Amino acid sequence: MTVSVILHNAAGASDAELAFIRESVSLLREAVQAPGFGGSVRQAQYSSASWRGRHGNVRQLDGDGVWDRIVQGRESGHCGDHALNLSIEIADLPDDKAGRGVIGATRIGTLPIYSARWFLNRCMIVDDPVNYAAHLMHQWMHVSGFVHRKDDAGKDAPSVVSRLVRRTLEPAHGERIDAQLTALVTLSIEVCDCCDAKAAGTVEHVEAA
């Protein structure tokens, strides 16, 4: 069973930004279609894989349940079409210069994904579409309905699956992965403001270096 990744739009992106986003989406597609990616998702160790339905009910899924939602392309409240559907809006979110920046923001179970322009531009400067692909995976997990718990180790489902995307792409694209960006993304995932069952949405934060 194969899952695709479809970019429907990227509001607010310049031509250069759109070209970079499209390349990142292509890499995300390569990752989720890679042999062994599904097995990695199913066998990964999660501190939590909390999924929240449209009516606020929260269920704990196992690795098989996490992969089932990904491979079926199941955004919250929709039937699976075997595609991760992405609608992105490039937003002027607070950067990390002030001490605590926002990489991305997604209201649980809904599109669009709000992606920080400063983070996109930083990825473009160092030509690292891999970490941007991992960021998109993290945010799509929220679109599917996965929420964070209080977990400083960054081992909940959105955090783990986004790292698996980067690790899957590393053998073929490792020369394009910027170590400082990886540290930035890893830190942001580990200190995300967690969602609980009553939270309206989630934002992906990063502490300033």
Q: So what's the CATH class?
A: Alpha Beta
- Radius of gyration over all CA atoms, rounded: 15 Å
In round numbers, the mean pLDDT is 86
CATH fold group: Collagenase (Catalytic Domain)
Number of strands: 7
Helix amount, in percent?
Answer: 40-55%
Low-confidence segments, given as residue ranges, are: 189-201
- Please report the distance between the alpha carbons of the first and last residues: 41 Å
Strand percentage = 15-25%
Q: Based on Cα principal axes, name the global outline.
A: globular
Order of helices and strands: EHHEEHEEEHHHHE
Q: What CATH architecture would you give? A: 3-Layer(aba) Sandwich
Query: Order of strands side by side in the largest beta sheet?
Result: 1-4-6-5-7
Q: Would you tell me the structural class of the helices and strands?
A: alpha/beta
Biggest sheet record? 5 strands, mixed
Number of domains: 1
Tally of individual helices:
7
For this entry, give a set of tags.
42% helix, five-stranded mixed beta sheet, Collagenase (Catalytic Domain), two-stranded antiparallel sheet
